[in-house]
Fold each of these.
Amino acid sequence: AAAALVRRSIAAKEAFLVQRALRATAAARRKGLLKEDEVGAFAGKAIGDGSPLKASLDAALPQGDASMGEDGGEAAEAAEPAEALPEVDAYVALCGVTALIDAGKVEQARSLVTDVVQWLQSSVNRRTMDVLASRLYFYYSLAHEKLGRLAEIRPTLLALHRSAAVRHDESGQEMLVNLLLRNYLHYSLYDQAEKLRAQVEQGSGGQGSNQQLCRYMFYMGRVRAVALEYSEAKECLQQALRKAPQAGALGFRAACNKWLVVVQLLLGEVPERSVFRQEGLQAALEPYYRLAFAVRQGDVQEFEAAAAANVRVFQRDRVHNLIVRLHRTVLRTGLRNLSLAYSRISIADAAAKLGLSDADAEDAEFIVAKVIRDGGIDARIDRATGTIISSETAGVYDPAEPQ
């Protein structure tokens, strides 16, 4: 049983037993065995009257006679008196918070996990508690995020991270760095997120946990993309995708792919078609496929239509500001196609073929000049005639001397 594993881990001082207990709890949760009344009955038998969490658990969870089932077994096991351990109290609280969130009772879960975090912060300093505490920090942030109250817990998360650093709590540091990054990015505080990244120790942010490393690289990719560091953003997002589970985690993989597609387009690269055909991700990536198609064709009108039709999707995914930057990439691609097709074309005709709006058409000469200066096309502007003259491309095998 999971509670027995927690007690064994304390006696043997082996942290992997706590991980095994958490995996057993996750399996019971997937089977639907982690219900409120069952966890309430478990808490009533496993938590002693002297526990500091007794009142909070009794107020949040219903008291029932059900057990957690054969796979859990905690209620039957807890019938025998056992030594009071804070790790067991934290494990029971973790089960209670998870059951409440699954049942949709987010406010009750928030109240319970807030009491637990305050207890951990004020009176618990045991390395055997680190793994359980990090999970409780996650649900502490999740409950507040679901209620739209993430800003309230930012000072608490910072204080918890300082304490974890002083105590050399690696799992706590990994979790709290990611929770702080998510908190900052939720409110678009990219400067604060970058300052946090610069101040945390090398190796923080998930080096010990593959799951935490995936999240850390994803958040760093977002920060780099907003800071115009597209190459670094691409590396971070690709690393997050490589380390993410390939059989599940569809939401995380979809979010990574969305940001990666936009970053690749900003770099002037065209994502492969197979990216948009991944099983389970086709519907989520459909707006980004239309966007990539418009950028590849250099069609300004098609790009603006795709951006306008899916503006709510891009705002929800928090990539709308990057989509606005893509307008310049579309113009560069369109001008490159025109320079290959025409050796000489008037600026007015180029603006018409690109489908520029009236405001952009008036500034078409400046747009073309900037693309030429940036090396997007090999051409020059004849101001006397108002035309774009493409440079002749010499053949690779043409001789340098006359024959």
Amino acid sequence: VDTTLTCYVLVDDKSEHRFCSRYDFGPWPLLPDPVEGDDKHTSGFGLCVNGFSFDELEGERVWKFARDVRETPDGFVLFDPGPRCKRFALPAGEDNDEQHVLGSWPSCVDILCVTREEGLQLLRERPSARAVASDDPLALAATLLLCEEDAVLQWVVVKLGDRGAVLVERNSRGDAGSGYLVYNGVDVGVHVSPAVQVPEVVDTVGCGDSFAAALALGYRRGWAADRALALAAAVGGATATRRGAGRNVADMKTVCTLLTEPRDYDAEESDPGELGAKVWVLNELSRQ
């Protein structure tokens, strides 16, 4: 218990959940000493950094590890700040180093996965950009993608809850369903995925992490962005059909069912290539 952050998930009868852990009482970070094995990497290593990583580890150590991962062949980093993002917006004090989170992520993250609120928090030091992006998820994603000249970001995903998600990419890795947006004079790829239709939402704990894991899998395998987004939406939705976030996360059968589930399309919000992306993912999964 002294060296492991045990986190309790509190869930109400509406499946809303909050987290409670020793982090809430400080001091921060909880694990100031080096962790054995920090410098051991393998080729093709994908690192998922969650906001809770900064509960246990010093911010600069987290980002040093992320930069080291990116230097390995095919290494990449996904950053999902999660609920801790609100704390990142607070001034750094003696007991925390949150400024490292805001200042370092653009230079060592390939995929950024945020909610609208989290994305705006990451732009808190750029008030003009934040104002432009406040009411438009696509503008928010594009602003985050291009927020720094030396940023290495390739994909930015803004999750919209029951409205689905949008993904903006720096360079198109495939032509299936790609749309384009000219933002500040730069062409960026745009993909929109409405939420999958889940028959019954049992528990939303773990949905965000499942979504991010599927996104990372698609990126690692070189999938086009719209295909990775389709898989992520289905995996996140499948996780909501079971209670708990351990062995009860998404399974292949439920994911495939959600990918084939018919629903009403909104022509103004849907990516015209979304259906084709789902079919491609289904064919790919059938070969697993």
Amino acid sequence: SGFVLVTSSSYFFLRPTTSAIFKPSWPSRGIGAHHMSSAYADNLSKNSFKGRLNLAPLRDPASALRAKSRLLAHLLLAAPASSAVFHTGAGISVAAGLPDFRGPDGIWTRQSRGGASRAEAAPATPFELAVPTLAHTAIATLARRGFLSAIVTQNIDNLHRRASLPPDPSPTPVLELHGNTLLDTCTNCRLRVPRTSASPTVGFTSRGPDLPCPRCREPAVVDSVLDWHDPLPEPDHALARRVSADAAWNVVVGSSMQMEPSRGLPRRGRGMVLVNLSEVEGEEAADLVVHG
């Protein structure tokens, strides 16, 4: 009975008394991938508040990572089954070729320096071709082994769902608080409609009468990607609040926790663990902080 701990640059498979570190070779972050994610960012309405930017990388020494990994393994193994919730942000998908927003090469950071963000070339790694990273796979493995009650993500990239697809699906719900660029929604019958390419719009924009719902045939299909001031989707938001409050451990991976209301969810439970490559808002309130 092992345990997998995800970090931004590695993951750990642990047993109670031993640990091994796996250092994967990540896919290259090509310029096309940066253009692709920037195109999504450019679709958002203008908003002056982007939070703290250009967050410097922080890495715990290898010995500290091992010690913290053993501690987190012990905490989750000792907790009741399905009592942990993983909360993920953009940092978890950087290894898939999707840039984050506030890191040294993040989209908002580049914009703050006067760098162009609009797509200027065909993307090398479109959202629909991005592959789940070892981090996504590890979290899906934890879900299948009965550690998690839910995965709560701010990401729109569909990678948690892809990591949990058959032949070994996870029964753990994936709660996408900012929507999914590869899933439209019918506002009439609530059917989730898969897309073959990333949504060209945000803010629940209608697909129009030429693209009716395949189930109810009503022209009620809209994108599911939130714009800045859109309310979080229900019932995902309500379920995220409930499972976070009930959790023995809320584990945050790849997020600087700067945006409300997502930043408040992990603080609702009995314990909180932060795993990120940069400083996280509210580290002083965490039971365990892992930088890496």
